[in-house]
Amino acid sequence: MEPFISENIYAPIFLTLALAFLTTLILLIIGTPLAWWLARSKARWKDIVSALVIMPLVIPPTVLGFYLLILLGPDGPGGAFASLWGAKTLAFTFSGLLIGSVLYSMPFVVQPIRNAFEAIGERPFEVAATLRATPWRAFWTVAVPLASPGFLTGAILGFAHTLGEFGVVLMIGGNIPGKTKVLSVAIFDYVEMGEWRLAHILAAGMIMFSFCVVLLMNSLEKYFRRQI
Amino acid sequence: MTSDSIITCLFKTSLRHFDLDITLNIPGDGVTALFGPTGSGKTTVLRCIAGLHRAAFGHLVVNEEIWQDKNYFRPAYERAIGYVFQEASLFPHLNVKSNLLYSAGMTKKKDPQKFEQIINLLGLERYLSQFPNSLSGGEQQRVSIGRALLSDPKLLLMDEPLSALDKSKKSEIMPFLEILRDTLHLPMVYVSHDMDEIEQIADHLVLIDEGKIKASDLLSNIQSDPLLPLADSQNAAVSINGIVESYDGNYGIAKFKVEGGFLNVPTSPMNQGAMHRLNINANDVSLSLEYGNKSTIENLIPAIIVDFKSSNTSQITVVLNLGHELCGSKILARVTKRSWDRLGLSVSQAIYVQIKAVSLIRNKR
Predict the structure, then answer these.
(1) ipTM greater than 0.90
(2) Which residue from A148, A149, A76, A72 is spatially nearest to A103, judged by alpha carbons?
(3) To probe the interface with B, which of A120, A123, A126, A132 has the most B CB atoms within 10 Å?
(4) Which of A9, B122, B204, B290 has the maximum number of C-beta atoms within 10 A of its C-beta?
(5) B237-361: which CATH number, 2.60.40.1180, 3.30.70.260, 2.40.50.100, 1.10.3720.10?
């Protein structure tokens, strides 16, 4: 493995960034209507859906990863789905990692958006309706701009949380360099191999990046709050 | 009702403490006030008309269009109404101009002339680029009224638009409402529990209590109906319209023509022909059998007693018709039972009324 070190150190970084970016994007797309429904619906089974969304916060990542492995594997629905394009399994693929990350980071994106929607209350939508806005237009012109701090928080938390993912990834993605080997797994490997210098580079980089993310989030949120 | 109704509605729905059950016709001009104690269901009626509340059983026709019946409910965003809420409820993320033009963005209808007219009427020019949180409560409410008007409504619904404001802010907004009433010719439904506001703004009055309609008529007819609670209240008064006949600049007194006579009111200079609303409190009116002008009272007018009611053991509220004919304005007088008996007064008797004070409700035209 020695000769590949110089390439190896960048591959996990790009892979992780791509994974975190796509996960956040997918969560914003599917999480927004979900958060809206959770914030506004009066359906009785809403509490059950809400609990399912929050679950990944409390169940151990290895447990989530174990069941995902079964579901994505050759004998699960993931395998059946993968056979559509001739593959055998979704486990140990980037797509599988993406599915796992979306589930694992879901509460971090959905909860802040849901809270922001709930904080708006009923009145602005009544006003919008009396001003001829259809519910669809009111959603885009009132709900989304008023909830923008929630979107920002959700996106940043989802992104940062996906970056640090370890347990789920290890269970369903394994450790394939350039394909499924993400940063946290790479750090673990370097420590295992006694490559402390490389582990340090990645770990310290993560700390600095996390600090910047939190700092950015705080100042952006302050800016948005002033706007509203 | 004196004019054609544009709104006929029937709503039945259960509220927390009682059932709302009303049938109501609202005239196509002027201001119809829904008056009643807090929690009497008047706001719910307004919300039902706006489509913000769906009555379990409802029938609503506006301008010959059905907005609600057994099988149909037109959603709020398809109803040509303007709605002014108790709180200004401006969109905090939009500046004043964008708030005002919000509905234009929805309907894609732009009318720069109307925009100019509304911001001039409401004095909003200098706030356009500001955000709502930098405006005072009164300024915000003016913007929200303008925003409602710019949605090109056929009907303006106002839910206690002044009640969240303090007294000085109220008197800042009220003149604007009067200007709107007099210049836009837009029927308005105005919910309030404040009689002062209603005396200033309303033409028609609907009394609501516990979800039921107690009366619905011209404001002065309800004020002067001895069977209704307003005539019985401590501050019973009647609001009538007067047209300036002449102005005596030496003494600063305007002579108003009202139905059945003339009233002299001390005031600042006024233009001849202008219409103003005059408020006559029952406690300021006394009765006399003969015409004597050896008194400091400015107004001594012939009138006919049309009705009376004992308010309590010692006082009587008398309904009077101004002038010799029974088509004059009706006003109220509060007299003691003893003087009623002493003068031997009775219904349909011709007498003279002395009006000590007439208060003028400011009305810029």
Answers:
(1) no
(2) A72
(3) A132
(4) B204
(5) 2.40.50.100
